[in-house]
Design a protein that fits this description.
Helices cover 25% and strands 20% of the residues. The chain has 154 residues and is α+β, with helices and mostly antiparallel strands. The protein has a four-stranded antiparallel sheet. The radius of gyration is 45 Å and the shape is elongated.
């Protein structure tokens, strides 16, 4: 057996010249761009860490009901918004196409006129009428009436 190995070793150069592959597995070829072609001081690629997606921002808390409000600020509000601000109406009337909510205090009356918003199909306050028992007119008296109504809901 030793002689056979010696003969095979001596024939290897001849076999190489003839194009006969040596016995055993062929030598591994380096992969393109693989480590055998890279300099020894080159470090392997490490992908950057994946950052977690930012958390969705939490919606701000709902503001507390306003302690003061002017009558023009009621225009455009939904029925739910008005109920939250002024409380339950003292009276409710249907005068198509409007629904009228009435609020009464000792010195004034506020009627809010709600009409349907065609796009959203929700009712919104679009007009108001205020009357005072003492006949006082003007924004200060009207806003004082609204303040009385709002204070009553507390």
């Amino acid at each position: 057996m030793g002689l056979l190995a010696l003969m095979a070793a001596g024939c290897a150069p001849l076999l190489d010249r003839l194009g006969v592959p040596p016995e055993g597995p062929p030598p591994a070829e380096p992969a393109p761009g693989g480590p055998s072609t890279a300099p020894a001081d080159l470090k392997p690629f490490t992908p950057p860490p994946v950052k977690p997606a930012p958390a969705k921002p939490t919606p701000p808390p709902k503001p507390a009901p306003k302690s003061s409000l002017s009558l023009p600020e009621l225009v455009g509000l939904s029925e739910a918004d008005v109920a939250r601000l002024l409380g339950t109406a003292d009276s409710l009337r249907e005068e198509p196409p409007a629904t009228i909510w009435g609020y009464r205090t000792g010195t004034c009356t506020l009627d809010l006129f709600f009409y349907m918003d065609v796009e959203s199909r929700n009712f919104r306050a679009l007009a108001y009428d205020v009357s005072t028992t003492d006949g006082v007119k003007g924004d200060p008296a009207l806003n004082a009436c609204l303040k009385q109504i709002m204070d009553r809901r507390r």
